[in-house]
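Supplementary Note 3. Input sequence used for the single-chain structure prediction.
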Amino acid sequence: MDMASLPETLMDQARAERARLLALTIADMPPPPDDLSLLIDTICMRNRFTARAEAWRHIGINPNRGRDLIARSARAIDWPIWFTTLAYAIR
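The predicted structure, written as discrete structure tokens, is reproduced below.
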């Protein structure tokens, strides 16, 4: 399914979500772990990876550290991790 075939309301929702994620700044750190998880899943899909571990490796983060960021250490999500994940997923 390509973006052109999505209903307009879904496209509007996708645009709004993208804008929200791009609007986060250093002052907003740490972001919600669900947002980081969404970006990691996006990297997986764009690169045809079969596991999140591959996406973590792709952006230079140990998969164990990545899992820990989403599960237990959400407060440890800092700007460099967020910016790198965002850049690979959205831009």
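Residues 22 and 28 are 11 Å apart (CA to CA). The radius of gyration is 14 Å.
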